[in-house]
Amino acid sequence: MKSQTPLSVEEIPETLPRRQTQARADSWNDVLVVGAGPTGMACAIEAQKAGLKAIVIDKGCLVNSIYNYPTNMVFFTTPELLEIGDIPFTTASAKPNRLEALEYYRRVAEHYELDIRQYEWVKTITGEDNDFRVATTNRHDAIHDYRARKIVLATGYYDLANKLNVPGEDLAKVFHYYREPHPYFDTDVVVIGGKNSAAETALDLWRHGARVTLVHRGAQMHNHVKYWVRPDIENRIKAGEITAYFNSEVREIGEDCVVVRTPSGTIRLRNDFVFALTGYHPDYDFLRSAGIELSSEQLRPVCDPETLESNVLGIYVAGVIVAGSRTSEIFIENGRFHGKLIAADLGAKLGRGNPNFPLDAT
Ligand SMILES: Cc1cc2nc3c(=O)[nH]c(=O)nc-3n(C[C@H](O)[C@H](O)[C@H](O)COP(=O)(O)OP(=O)(O)OC[C@H]3O[C@@H](n4cnc5c(N)ncnc54)[C@H](O)[C@@H]3O)c2cc1C
Questions:
Q1: Own/partner long-range contacts of 17-24 (Cβ < 8 Å, ≥24 apart)
Q2: Which of 87, 122, 198, 350 is the S-S candidate for 193 at Cβ 3.0 to 4.6 Å?
Q3: 182-206, pLDDT tens digit by residue?
C-alpha cells in the first residue's frame, strides 16, 4: 500500500504538531473509491489496469467488515470464489477462515500497490462528473479534501445494524456483533434472530458453556441457514440444550432480564447478555447525500445494470449496496465482478484512447 504523501526531510520541522503533519494539499485522482472491502479493492485494481489513477478511502482498516466478523469465522465460500485481481487464493482446508482472508487481501493490496487511505471517513461528496470533491475526516478529526473525476461507492452494509427499537437496547450488555464465546461462559445469554449469524452464535456460545435462549419472530429457523448448520441448531433445540422461542419477540431488555412476548404469553427471562443478530443495512443516508436515488421498495440505488453508473453521472455503485435492503443477494463471490464492469466504462470514458487521457492534474 502506498503511504500518505510524505514530506521531504527538509520540510519536516522538529516540533511539527501531529495534526499538521497529516494535512495534505488537495489530491487529484481519476477515480476515488469509497470503501476498501473486497469490492472496492477490485474496483481500484481494475481501474488501475485500465491505466487510471485510483485511490481508495476507508473509515476503518483494509477489508474492515471481514476484520469485524466473528474471530473464528470460516467462510461458506471456497477460496477461489473470493479472489480478486487474478491473484490466486489457496488455503489448507476447503474453506478459508477469517485470518486467511485478511492475509489474502493484504497481499493483494501490496501486490497492486493500491493507494488505500485507512481510517478516513468520507463525509461529503460534492461537485459533478469529472470534477467531484470529497471531504473526509481522519481519526484525529483532521479534514482532508480530494478531487476526482469519477467516484465509486462500495460502502457495504456491515456498519449499520438493524435495530430492535425496544427499551434497553442501548444497555452495554446488548451487542449487534459477535466475536468469540469465552466471556459468556456460565452466563445467561439471549440470541435474537433466525438466520445464519444467530444460529452459529447460539451454537458457539452453547458449546463454550453459556446458557443460551434463542428468540426468533419466525415460526422456525430461516431457510437460508447453511444446510450443515441447520440440523445442528435444530437438534440442540429438540434436545433442550438450547431453549428457543419461535413466533416470539423481545419487548424490553433490563439490567438482569429480558421480556419476551411468546405465543403463550409474555415471559421474563433471567439474562446477562443479549446478541441482537437481526441483520445490517447499507448507509442509505450517505448514498442519498451523494444524490443517489433509491428504489421505493428495496432501496436499491438507481443505476445502469451494464455499467453500474448511478443516476448521478460519474458516480458508480458497487458490491452489496447494489442490492439495497436485499443484502444476501450480493456477496463477495458475485460483487467482486463489479470492478470489471465499472472499469470497462471508466476505461472508455477516461482511459487510454480517450482524448482526455492522460489526466490533466492540477
Ligand atoms: C459473518 C459473515 C460471513 C460472510 N461469509 C461470506 C462468504 O463466505 N462468502 C461471501 O461471498 N460473502 C460472505 N459474506 C458477505 C460478504 O462479506 C459481504 O457481502 C461483502 O463483504 C460485501 O463486500 P463489499 O466490498 O460490498 O462491502 P464491505 O466488505 O462491507 O466493505 C465496505 C467498506 O466500506 C467502508 N465504508 C463504509 N462507509 C464508508 C464511508 N462513508 N467512508 C469510508 N469508508 C466507508 C467500510 O468500512 C468497509 O470497509 C459474509 C458476511 C458476514 C456478515
A1: 18/140, 19/140, 19/142, 22/138, 22/140, 22/142, 22/144, 23/142, 23/144, 24/144
A2: 198
A3: 999 999 999 999 999 999 999 999 9
